[in-house]
Write a structure and sequence with these properties.
- This protein has 34 helices and 42 strands.
- Helix 14 (352-365) crosses helix 21 (535-543).
- Strands 5-4-16-15-14-6-7 form a 7-stranded mixed sheet, sandwiched between helices. A 6-stranded mixed barrel has the order 20-26-22-25-24-27. It has a 4-stranded parallel sheet with strand order 11-10-9-12.
- The protein has 1016 residues and is α/β, with parallel strands linked by helices.
């Protein structure tokens, strides 16, 4: 039967007497419109008039270098510009295949350009492409137009020429009496490795040290010990029926990410089957939120749990202590063993012994999902060498230090020691995009181009070779690190020529032009790899590992910010974290039980914004003050979490200088630390959207069921259709029309399908929507006022009970009104948040209702319905009454309270000439005083129709895309023409799991969802 389980977005909603929730529920706009701020005088009012059609005025091509680069097109021999750049057709987009490889994110992508300007990142969905562009990758196009980029090389903080830079470095290399060190991030570049090998041969005292800000040393060391190579084992979760993860957020940034696509294939029930996912972790992660069974444990207990699983799967009997969840761990291990070759285990524990046990368990299972024969090279840092480097620098042993793609003064826990060491190095140079914390202290700050301006190659995994190509001429006076290496070696050839020659033997028969056009070449690797190590010894060592004294601090990369490279990117700063729904901040996540012990509180103020306590953290001798504390349901008791990537100051706009630097607590490169927490004075203001636009209690929002009920019961039970009264008869709500409908069977009719089973909550669609539709950034203060402008939001709901079955059991076990099992007290208990709640992610945008409530109340017909199913907005006609927003049951309309374009009060990318170059010329830049919302990317659907018309053919069945569906690598979002019965969306519309939000209202949306099925 359908569940009456209550879902909630914020703890505040569970307080039935909350005046705040009541106020927010009854008021679409929580604060009065500040009309006096922009309509207060005649001059201000008159200045608001502008031509919305004049796109070039909005873009403001006053940055001469940028506009010149765009007009001239990309550098020679880029694909697809076979002809001269003059052949560019204005108004027609070109796409380039390239590769993102910034040391943290690695993925094959396509870059959309307009008139020579890169404006959007798309997934490269060619067969065998390593796809999976996350929110950061989609936002990286905006980082190209960062006005605070380093624009030319500097020597001793003064502008210099490249010849001076090369001459100074070469002189230092030639005269070096001490060590010469190249310190780089993980580049995974065969051509660069070849260059560095030649460099080391020329300068015998030179060494190359690879440094990852967030290291994977334990996994790399374990793989080297077991398989003889420093790399990471790869996995294909689509081949697993049972997945057990111990501390690995494999839907986030674990091992470089990119696992969600294959994982999602097994999560959609087909033929009565779907994979089972069990997550053992401390912090609530994306992987934990998507798991069927989540077991919150401290990191110390996770190690014991891994040994227990090892014993059961391999049949060994290593002595190990108890945990608080032994029964659940044993059950998970038994299910994993029963799955055999269809089972897989992964772990993110920073412990070599733990990683060795992962290999042993998967080898014992014969796991098909475990692929050690084709390892990944996206992490290569060596923390021991980095630690020794800092010692050598301070001992005066390093003569020349050349860095590329690293910022150790910020990212090292002992960054101050590194900064001191720089003073004792004879010559230090940093090849960097920005004059960051490290570059500002080096003798030479060498400006490098963005990846969209660069050539390069990447080997993300064995047998897979990718090319990076420029999509625009360099905007500034920049030079690649590889060009520097060539100059110091006395070579006169360009890096392009060197790269082309070095690719020979890696192209698998493809021509150079074909390789650049496709972006990659994949070679099948056959055979298997057998691990050889003392696994029992590793298990014994892990079982006897000492528990950290006191609380455990678990450091992690936040979905939006990663390692902090793009901290000056406003799209990412305003991106709400999928779990906490907080933007513009990092914070200490703490369980409710521990929060009460610390005296930490979170509470909502009158307008719904969230405030919380500050705490002071102490790890060893390091103290971090004024850290905001966020009470996180699902956080393992005895643990707290803190995200990397925040707390930066250098080369950032003031608005982006937020948060605290968690790297200061990253002692010995271990993401788990013993920490003491003490409540501090003051109160922090969060930019949290979890209580905004809540749909809790509206019914027909989140529908879920278990796999057993899904397989054994009729769809009417687990996907109950709402009924309404018509002529005193109860009828299906979908059969009743509010008014007469027009014929929707003629021509195209667009629908968007969203599967709650495969949506991982990653948020890539949110940033893709920003890029495609010129969505403005409004800043922390406006977000707190419920004025964020996201056209697409991902609601995160928690359930009230630990398990779905427990929730239903409790509800059905009520007996009478009063007493221990009475419904009055029982339902009250169901409203309290569980310590370990289930989670549902639900993307919500304009539902494009065929019977749209917004259209009937607009006094000026600014919003109307199109024949193709899209709800249109005529911005020029809108007078900002906001009646449509008040009448929208889905709370998806956004009002432009201010002019966000070219306004110093909103000093983000739309307020500078360079930043505006990212704007999409196909989409109007909206002004103040108008409503805006999702358009189902009408510019994209019309372009598809026009392309087919120009080519004299019909549109292919699955050719239509919108920004969110194109960005969704998990396949949760599928867009298309529902009138084309061959289309995927038309087939999905016929499935039993399909339902509409608030279907009883009779709005007949063109967006539909699929019931979430849990394998419990």
């Amino acid at each position: 039967m359908a569940s009456n389980k209550k879902y909630w977005k914020s703890v505040e909603e569970l307080n039935e007497n909350s005046s705040i929730v009541e106020r927010l529920g009854n008021n679409e706009f929580v604060e009065e419109i500040p009309t006096e701020d922009f309509l207060g005088d005649k001059n201000t009012l008159s200045s608001s008039s502008t031509s919305r059609r004049d796109f070039l005025k909005y873009v403001g091509f006053s940055t001469a270098a940028a506009s010149l680069a765009a007009c001239e097109g990309p550098v020679k021999k880029s694909i697809p510009y076979v002809f001269q750049p003059e052949e560019i057709v204005p108004g027609v987009a070109d796409f380039y295949a390239t590769t993102v490889a910034d040391g943290f994110d690695f993925v094959n992508v396509l870059i959309k350009t307009r008139e020579g300007r890169p404006i959007k990142v798309e997934n490269n969905f060619m067969e065998n492409a390593l796809t999976g562009a996350n929110a950061r990758v989609h936002a990286s196009v905006l980082s190209l137009y960062d006005s605070l980029r380093l624009k030319q090389p500097k020597i001793d903080n003064k502008a210099a020429s490249w010849s001076d830079v090369d001459q100074k470095i070469k002189a230092s290399l030639t005269s070096a009496t001490g060590q010469i060190v190249l310190l780089t991030n993980t580049m995974a570049s065969p051509s660069t490795d070849k260059l560095i090998a030649e460099f080391k041969a020329t300068y015998p005292t030179a060494k190359h040290i690879v440094y990852d800000a967030i290291g994977s040393d334990a996994a790399l060391d374990a793989y080297q010990q077991a398989y003889g190579e420093r790399a990471l084992a790869d996995y294909n979760f689509g081949k697993a029926d049972v997945i057990v993860s111990v501390g690995a957020d494999f839907l986030g940034d674990w091992q470089g990410g990119g696992y969600d696509s294959e994982y999602a294939k097994g999560r959609v029930p087909k033929n009565g089957k779907m994979s089972k996912h069990i997550q053992i972790e401390a912090n609530m992660s994306l992987a934990g939120a998507n798991a069927d069974k989540r077991i919150p444990l401290t990191v110390a207990e996770q190690k014991l749990a891994l040994v227990k699983i090892y014993n059961i799967v391999t049949g060994n009997a290593v002595s190990v202590g108890n945990t608080v969840a032994d029964a659940e761990i044993t059950k998970a291990a038994q299910q994993l063993k029963a799955a055999g070759t269809n089972g897989v285990l992964v772990s993110g524990l920073d412990d070599v012994n733990a990683q060795l046990l992962v290999f042993a368990i998967n080898q014992a299972l014969g796991s098909q999902a475990f692929n050690p024969a084709q390892p990944k090279y996206v992490r290569g840092g060596n923390n021991k060498e980095v630690t020794q480097l800092v010692k050598d620098m301070n001992a005066g042993l390093v003569h020349t230090l050349i860095m590329s793609g690293v910022n150790p003064v910020y990212t090292l826990a002992n960054g101050d020691a590194f900064a001191e060491g720089l003073k004792k190095v004879k010559l230090s140079a940093s090849y960097t995009l920005r004059e960051d914390e490290t570059a500002s202290l080096t003798n030479i700050a060498a400006a490098v181009p963005h990846y969209l301006e660069s050539w390069g190659d990447v080997q993300m995994k064995k047998g897979h070779y990718s090319i990076m190509q420029p999509t625009i001429r360099p905007l500034f006076n920049t030079k690649q690190f590889q060009e520097g290496l060539l100059a110091w070696l006395g070579k006169t050839e360009s890096y392009y020529d060197y790269l082309k020659a070095a690719s020979t033997g890696l192209t698998n028969g493809k021509t150079w032009n074909q390789l650049v056009h496709d972006g990659f070449v994949a070679t099948e690797i056959t055979g298997s790899a057998i691990a050889s190590a003392d696994f029992n010894g590793a298990a014994s060592a892990l079982a006897s590992s000492k528990k950290a004294a006191g609380l455990e601090l678990v450091l992690y990369p936040k979905t939006g910010m990663g390692d902090g490279q793009q901290a000056n990117n406003p799209w990412l700063q305003e991106f709400p974290d999928p779990i906490t729904r907080v933007s513009w901040d990092n914070y200490l996540t703490v369980s409710k039980a521990d929060a009460e012990a610390f005296g930490v509180e979170n509470h909502n103020v009158a307008n719904g914004a969230l405030n919380g306590s500050y705490v002071t953290l102490k790890v060893g001798d390091t103290v971090l003050e004024n850290v905001p504390a966020f009470i996180q349901p699902g956080q393992a008791k005895g643990t707290v979490g803190l995200a990397f990537g925040y707390g930066r100051k250098s080369a950032l706009k003031e608005e982006m200088q937020v948060g605290v630097n968690a790297y200061k607590l990253y002692k010995d490169f271990n993401n788990t630390q013993s920490v003491s927490v003490e409540k501090a004075a003051g109160e922090h203001e969060f930019a949290c959207v979890q209580l905004q636009r809540t749909l809790m209690g509206r019914g027909d929002i989140v529908k879920d069921t278990t796999l057993e009920i899904f397989n054994t019961k009729d769809a009417k039970v687990w996907n109950e259709k709402p009924h309404v009264s018509l002529d005193h008869q109860s009828v299906d709500a979908s059969t009743v029309d509010i008014w007469e409908s027009f014929d929707r069977s003629v021509g195209h009719h667009f629908n968007l399908s969203i599967d709650l089973n495969s949506c991982t909550g990653c948020g890539a669609c949110v940033i893709a929507c920003h890029a495609e539709n010129n969505v403005p950034v409004v800043g922390k203060d406006e977000v707190r006022r419920s004025r964020d402008m996201h056209w697409l939001r991902i609601d995160r709901y928690y359930s009230s009970e630990d398990t779905f079955a427990g929730d239903v059991e409790k509800k059905e076990g009520f007996s009478g009104l009063f007493g221990e099992n009475g419904s009055l007290g029982g339902f009250g208990e169901l409203e309290h948040p569980a310590n370990n709640p289930q989670v549902v992610f639900q993307p919500v945008m304009c539902q494009h209702c065929n019977h749209a409530p917004c259209e009937t109340v607009c006094p000026v017909a600014a919003t109307s319905h199109g024949r193709q199913g899209q709800n249109h907005m005529a911005y020029n006609r809108c007078v900002g009454t906001r009646y449509c927003a008040n009448n929208c049951p889905y709370k998806v309309r956004r009002f432009n309270w201010f002019l966000y374009n070219q306004n110093d009060a909103f000093d983000y990318h739309m307020n500078d000439d360079l930043g505006r170059m990212v704007l999409n010329p196909d989409v109007n830049v909206r002004s103040r005083g108008v409503m805006e919302k999702c358009s189902l990317c009408i510019q994209m659907t019309q372009a598809t129709i026009l392309n087919a018309k120009r080519e004299g053919r019909a549109v292919n069945s699955n050719e239509f895309e919108v920004a969110c569906s194109a960005a969704c690598t998990s396949g949760s979002m599928v867009f298309g023409d529902v009138n084309n019965k061959e289309s995927e969306v038309a087939k999905l519309y016929e499935e039993d799991r399909r339902y509409h939000l608030l279907e009883h209202l009779g709005t007949k949306p063109n967006v539909f969802y699929h019931v979430k099925v849990r394998n419990v």
